[in-house]
Amino acid sequence: MAAIVFDLDGTLIDSAPDIHRSLSVALEAEGRPVLTLDVVRSFIGNGVAVLVRRAMGVSDLAGDEVHARMLARFMAAYDAAPADLTRPYPGVAEALAGLKAAGHKLAVCTNKPEAISRAILASLNLAPFFDDIVGGDRLPERKPDPRPLHTAFAALGAPTGLYVGDSEVDAETARAAGAPFILFTRGYRSKSVAELAPVASFDDFAGLATIVAART
Ligand SMILES: O=C(O)COP(=O)(O)O
Ligand SMILES: [Mg+2]
């Protein structure tokens, strides 16, 4: 049995289209043009506050007041339809079911706020696979600080385990936590696989069980 923790955005689910839709609402309310899906995707990974800051940075917007207003509009639009355009990557449910059947314990550790993360996973029928879902607002610290990941392993009753993610934030989090990092290569990373130096990588969830079996 192993404890296996998963990142959410860009790892289990392709959530960029709903994030793009919600950010567009916030930008349009400020009279700014919407950004492309590719640009928005590149802003995901450090939580919603950083996402909005990055969008402001390329939209000639500044100031804490604007940030607070945009963040509130973004979250209202996102909360209204959290999984409208969001889908699990192919094979995710089957892979999670297989890992559970093999006796592994699963959790999620994401920088996305916890309530909406839980709502999305529930609406995609993925929530029952996880013993805990640690969101970016559970602790004062967010990934790449190792504490959220430590919290997820602790919830599984394990001192450590495997961490599966898609980005440089996840690679750094795993390194800081001393956990082996497994990279899903089709997510939202901006660095090469070599730069992220995972212990293993996969581009199809059908391949995850073999990787886990080799390391447990
Ligand atoms: O909210 C984000 O920016 C990213 O979330 P993630 O940690 O699930 O990739
Ligand atoms: Mg991610």
From TrEMBL:
Residue sites binding Mg(2+) per the record: 7, 9, 166
GO MF annotation: an example: metal ion binding
Listed pathway(s) = Organic acid metabolism; glycolate biosynthesis; glycolate from 2-phosphoglycolate: step 1/1
Q: Which cofactor does it need?
A: Mg(2+)
Give UniProt keywords alphabetically: Carbohydrate metabolism, Hydrolase, Magnesium, Metal-binding
Could you state one GO biological process linked to this protein?
carbohydrate metabolic process
Q: What is its EC number?
A: 3.1.3.18
- Which catalytic residues are annotated? 7
The task this protein performs is described as: Specifically catalyzes the dephosphorylation of 2-phosphoglycolate. Is involved in the dissimilation of the intracellular 2-phosphoglycolate formed during the DNA repair of 3'-phosphoglycolate ends, a major class of DNA lesions induced by oxidative stress.
Please identify the protein, giving its name as recorded: Phosphoglycolate phosphatase
Q: Which organism is it from?
A: Albidovulum denitrificans
Q: What is the lineage of its organism?
A: Bacteria, Pseudomonadati, Pseudomonadota, Alphaproteobacteria, Rhodobacterales
